[in-house]
């Protein structure tokens, strides 16, 4: 037996090494635990809810639509019926549900709402503002987020993936939007960005970070156990996904991805060079930004079905302003040539790519052009106009993990759609003319301006007209 021991030990070491290098499991899929009748929340947590939760009353019928449904099919003429928060029928003619609001599209394009996969709803208005108290206060964060929601909504964006915001603010905003209390797109929130000490977003003490400031948008974690704890904290607060950033060790990123996947959450990462390869080995689900990585890493992304959200537009803004300077997490050349060379490699390899804008500070004031600019960037990579719109809708829903409910206009899907005065599948510039936006059966934009449903005055338990 002794003579076989070295061989057995070597085999065990090889097996352990192979396990460490193999991707970890994908997010835990609990769909098989539901009977098909149980109603779950319209987010990535899929929590059982009381039927009718956040579902508006009544129906809407859109007549004479030029329907671009996001499936890849050509636009066609159709009517669309919405009952509650769902699309129930797409067909010309037919009876309208009793009491339905009738909207005549008049040949305008009806299409799925746009999805922005990289947002920061509560980001500070400008760098260098006084102290962490003003930047990290939950009141200030929520107010900043509410303002940004209007810009996204009026630009035809009906879902945003928020990939780092302050404390509980993004989750509170998400709940208020879902209930119809404030007008805005659906919010899929990651909570705090999880990063190693001194990693992206923490350089030079540029921003306050947790745990020193618990409500900060960035959480510095040290060691695998602390990375797991950071994931659990975000999950406890209400996270729909987890966002990581380099720098990290292989053990740290492995721990974070493993913990998130066990909880059923997808993981995206902001990383570069060797760290992107480490994140892919850990099994992340998507990679943000057009940052340097090896050709081998790009091939691994394609092989393992890891998506990309390239976010060209913020780098164009940064480069126009002089460059990404002073950052220890950006120690490489960034140029127009470098970011589009990476985008071309990702497209050539067959990596699934979605639209994200990463509009920090006051850049949301550039909407809708900022979103359209990202579509122009996809056109520059060789996408046709319809293909770019599919990337903005169906593919975005796939990367989110919400394609069973969002991204295309089909019976049974959630009623998230926009009416555009033009033909954006022929000319994406027509997206500047969004007239009407519906999220979950609620009209939140009319005539290009955010709106709320009429208030409902409820009878008080006691009132008196006597003076």
TrEMBL record:
Entry keywords, A to Z: Signal
Xref: SUPFAM superfamilies: Composite domain of metallo-dependent hydrolases, Metallo-dependent hydrolases
Gene3D superfamilies (UniProt xref): Metal-dependent hydrolases, Urease, subunit C, domain 1
Record carries keyword Signal: yes
Signal sequence, start to end: 1-20
Ranges annotated as spanning the membrane: none
All copies of domain Amidohydrolase-related, residue ranges: 109-443
Coiled-coil ranges from the UniProt annotation: none
Pfam annotation, one family: Amidohydro_1
Keyword Signal found: yes
Protein name: Amidohydrolase family protein
